[in-house]
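WARN retry 2 of 3 for item q-0093 after timeout on previous attempt; input resubmitted unchanged.
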Amino acid sequence: MRVLSVIGARPQFVKAALLSAELAQRGIDEILVHTGQHYDREMSDVFFEELRLPVPAHYLNVGSGGHGMQTGEMLKRLEPVVQREEPDWVLVYGDTNSTLAGALVAAKLHVPVAHVEAGLRSFNRAMPEEINRVVADHVADLLLVPNENAAKQLAQEGVTRGVRVVGDLMVDLAMQAAAQIPARPPVLDRFGVKPREYYVATIHRASNTDDRPTFRRLLEGLRAADRPVVFPVHPRTREIASQEGAGDGDNLMLCEPLPYAQMLALLSQSAALFTDSGGLQKEAFVLKVPCVTLREETEWIETLEDGWNVLAGSDAAKIAAASRRPVPMRQGTPYGDGHAARNIVEALQERTASYAA
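OK item q-0093 returned
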C-alpha cells in the first residue's frame, strides 16, 4: 500500500508526526508532499525537526496568497505528483487550502481520498475552512472522524459509507507531550512570568486579521485582561499588530511563533488561552487550561462542555470577562483512547483489502 500524504500548515505537521511514524512502523510506503502553505521557518521547518517528520518527497513551494491563487497553484503543482507516484490513497488532514487541493486532485484522478478530521462543522460558510472541510468530506472515500458527534453530522448530510471513528491525532500527541513538561518550564523564564499569572494569545484567521476594526476590538479585550498576555504572532498577523501598536506600553508580550514543545509548555502553565485556532482549543482542553475562543463558533463543540471553552467573538468586554471565569471542575474524554494513528492505519488497510476483494 502506498499513501500520499498532503500537508502544508502547522496543525497538519503536528497530526502527521504520529501518523507518519505509525505508517513507517508498519512498513507502509508514505510519500509526503508539503504544499508550502506555511513556509516560514517558525511555522514549518522547526516542526519537521522537532517532531521528527520525514523530509517531504515533494515540496510544492506554493507560498502565501489569496485563496483562489493559492489553491489553484496547489492543484496545478500537485496533479502531476499524484500521477507520477500512483498512490493507493491520497490522505489529507483538517480544513486548509492544502486539504482542499489534495482532495480535489485525487478525486479527479480517481484515487481514493482519506480525510483525517472528517465530519467537523462550524456552520459558518463565511469561513474558508468550512468550505474546505465540507468539500473534502463529500469527495472522500474514507472519512476518519474524531468522535461520534462528527459521525452523526456526516449521517445528517447523507454520508454514511466509509465513516470510521478513530480518535484525534493532535490530542494524542498533546497528551504524550504533556507528560514530558517539567513543573517549571524554562520558557517561562524567557518571558519573566510565573505559573497561572499570565495568559497566552494567538490570532491568525483572516476574519480577525484582515478586518482592522475587528482586530482592534480583539486587542482592546486582550489589553483589558488582568494579567500579562504572551502573544506569539503568526506571520499573517505581524503587520497589523505592528500598525496597531500591540506590545507598545501595554500588557501584551509579543514574540515569534514558538516551537511545538515550547508552545505547549507555555500554554500548560497559563491561566487561560485566547485564540482563534482550532488546534490550540484542543491542546488547551488536554492541558486543562480554560480557553476563550475569538470566534462566534467552533467546530470543536466538545470543548464547550463543562465550560472549558467559551465563545467570545470579537466582543472586547466578553473577552476580558471570560478569562476571569472559574476553572471548571469536570472534564470528559471526547477525543478517543490515545490510539488514533493505529486506528487510522487499520482503517486504511481494511478499506484497501475490501477494494481488492
